[in-house]
């Protein structure tokens, strides 16, 4: 099955390159391409880390250089803030962190610098104007050249507000610029502050007035990845506050929306049922439950969803639970990954063979129903298997990736920490690729250890730079003496009047420094050696 999934990937990927690149997506029925989310060659960015998971380092390296040359974010395009973040920023960050593993020649200072990181930062900066609202909750759409359009609707879905912390916190930790994590946290907290008295959030909110426009509460479309990012943000950042927010929501969700291991839609203020419907997007929930250790409940809900799959050979967008059938105009299956994603998490947690059976069924039905000469087509109607002329980029980013990982227990993504790489950065050594990857909601894996490789605060960086500058600046006498030695407890005191100016500048910068010093001196005096976070520089370096 693993090899069949690999063949599925290449059938779709090669036809995208042949018929659709540089457009965003492949149109598999007409064998051509179309731009859908902003003209970024999106399928290429989305498929990049999947290439490495399948072990194709040479194509990964080729695509990295293609993207560096070909992708431009200075374009007059109205882009979805949410989609650009999860697909473009997430895809570039993940590829940046995996590039050394893929044999790309990384620059000095990686993972704290690099061309893909600079591209991710540039894309994220284009999204920042959307967050300039009275509530801190972002607009849903931004023009990449001009910012938020005048007359832009202030109504955004909950997921479009609460799905930034994974990518933006990673960016802040890697680049040292706190603005990204700050706006993502502010948006998360604004949603939390505006929850109803019974602890639920609605579907759409006005980001200017903080009034709920759509008051349906549930775990599916419009809300889904907000809950997902509270859990994943808590894991990635080891943040108890985010986890306690999720656990509070989880209580309210169980109290008001859960019936017989199904989750319905309810009115957010009263808790009365508004739609007894299961949406295919909700199928991520068992995977999320398994991440917080609630495996029994996860498995029961997963089995409910799996019965729907068996009924149709896919998950219809909407499924009426009491009637046990599809909902009018919502009968399609665009090859979504959510049930397969949950299967991957649950198989890691339980090794239950039933979960593998879903993987088998998914491979069989996707091959049988949606495979065409030029790729895999969205299923327009699961009742008669009519197809639509679209292959979404998430098919290669998520669906194929989760299927492959379900059938590949030895993949490096499943690493339990027994093997790892040690990387030397300007801030010392750090451990990477030890496992524990956190997938963003587009299945782009982020290595949580990377967040500890780069110093977050610029003041600390300045201290390192001051020392380096002092050490390398030409002196009349070769004897090196450490300025501000008293700050750090050891070393000779400053005697060289030439250095008085740089000393003052250095003191100014380091006045904000944290209570414990970043730098500590070795025992020998500094006329022989300088150590910065454990790296020793000799006089003749």
Automatic annotation (TrEMBL):
Enzyme Commission number(s): 3.2.1.-
Q: Which cofactor does it need?
A: Ca(2+)
Keyword Metal-binding set for record: yes
Quick one: which residues bind Ca(2+)? 441
Active-site residues? Answer: 83, 224, 317, 338
Instruction: Tell me which Gene3D superfamilies the record gives.
Output: 1.50.10.10
Name the Gene Ontology biological process terms: carbohydrate metabolic process; endoplasmic reticulum mannose trimming; positive regulation of retrograde protein transport, ER to cytosol; response to unfolded protein
Q: What are the record's GO terms for cellular component?
A: endoplasmic reticulum quality control compartment; membrane
Q: Where in the cell is it found?
A: Endoplasmic reticulum
Keywords annotated in UniProt: Calcium, Endoplasmic reticulum, Glycoprotein, Glycosidase, Hydrolase, Metal-binding, Unfolded protein response
One GO term in the molecular function aspect is: calcium ion binding
TM region(s), chain numbering: none
* Role noted for this protein: Involved in the endoplasmic reticulum-associated degradation (ERAD) pathway that targets misfolded glycoproteins for degradation in an N-glycan-dependent manner. May initiate ERAD by promoting the first mannose trimming step of ERAD substrates, from Man9GlcNAc2 to Man8GlcNAc2. Seems to recognize and bind to exposed hydrophobic regions in target proteins.
Q: Which family does it belong to?
A: Belongs to the glycosyl hydrolase 47 family.
- Can you name this protein? alpha-1,2-Mannosidase
Name the source organism: Nyctibius grandis (Great potoo)
């Amino acid at each position: 099955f693993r090899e069949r999934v690999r063949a599925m990937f290449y059938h779709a990927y090669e036809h995208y390159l042949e018929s659709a690149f540089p457009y965003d997506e492949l149109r598999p029925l007409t064998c051509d391409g179309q731009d859908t989310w902003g003209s970024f060659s999106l399928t290429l960015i989305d498929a990049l880390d999947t290439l490495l998971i399948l072990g194709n380092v040479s194509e990964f390296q080729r695509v990295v250089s293609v993207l560096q040359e070909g992708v431009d974010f200075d374009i007059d395009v109205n882009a979805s803030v949410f989609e650009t973040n999860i697909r473009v920023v997430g895809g570039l960050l993940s590829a940046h962190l995996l590039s050394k593993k893929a044999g790309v020649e990384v620059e000095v200072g990686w993972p704290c610098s690099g061309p893909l990181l600079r591209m991710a930062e540039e894309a994220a900066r284009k999204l920042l104007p959307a967050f300039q609202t009275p509530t801190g909750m972002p607009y849903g759409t931004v023009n990449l050249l001009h910012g938020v359009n005048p007359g832009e609707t202030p109504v955004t879905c909950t997921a479009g507000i609460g799905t930034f912390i994974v990518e933006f916190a990673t960016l802040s930790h890697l680049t040292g610029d706190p603005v990204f994590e700050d706006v993502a946290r502010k948006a998360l907290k604004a949603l939390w502050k505006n929850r109803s008295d019974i602890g639920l959030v609605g579907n759409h909110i006005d980001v200017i007035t903080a009034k709920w426009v759509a008051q349906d509460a549930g775990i599916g479309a419009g809300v889904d990845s907000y809950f997902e990012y509270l859990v994943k943000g808590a894991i990635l950042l080891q943040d108890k506050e985010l986890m306690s927010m999720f656990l509070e929501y989880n209580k309210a969700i169980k109290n008001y929306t859960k019936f017989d291991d199904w989750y319905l839609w309810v009115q957010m203020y009263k808790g009365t049922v508004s739609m007894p419907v299961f949406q295919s997007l909700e199928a991520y929930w068992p995977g999320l439950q398994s991440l917080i250790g609630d495996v029994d409940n996860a498995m029961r809900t997963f089995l409910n969803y799996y019965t729907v799959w068996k009924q149709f050979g896919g998950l219809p967008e909407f499924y009426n639970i009491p009637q046990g059938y599809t909902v009018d105009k919502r009968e399609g299956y665009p090859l979504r990954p959510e049930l397969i994603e949950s299967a991957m998490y649950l198989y890691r947690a339980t090794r239950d063979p039933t979960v593998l059976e879903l993987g088998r069924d998914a491979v069989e039905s996707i091959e049988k129903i949606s495979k065409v000469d030029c790729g895999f087509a969205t299923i327009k109607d699961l009742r008669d298997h009519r197809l639509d002329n679209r292959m979404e980029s998430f098919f290669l980013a998520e669906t194929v990736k989760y299927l492959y990982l379900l059938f590949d227990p030895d993949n490096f993504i499943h690493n339990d920490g027994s093997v790892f790489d040690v990387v030397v950065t300007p801030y010392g050594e750090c451990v990477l690729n030890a496992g524990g990857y956190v997938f963003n909601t587009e299945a782009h894996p982020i290595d949580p250890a990377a967040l500890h490789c780069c110093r977050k605060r610029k003041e600390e960086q300045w201290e390192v730079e001051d020392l380096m500058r002092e050490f390398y600046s030409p002196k009349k006498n070769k004897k090196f003496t450490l300025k501000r030695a008293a700050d750090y407890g050891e070393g000779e005191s400053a005697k060289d009047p030439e250095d008085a100016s740089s000393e003052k500048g250095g003191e100014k910068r380091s006045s904000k420094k944290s209570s414990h010093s970043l730098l500590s001196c070795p025992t020998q005096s500094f006329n022989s050696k300088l150590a910065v976070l454990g790296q020793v520089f000799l006089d003749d370096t």
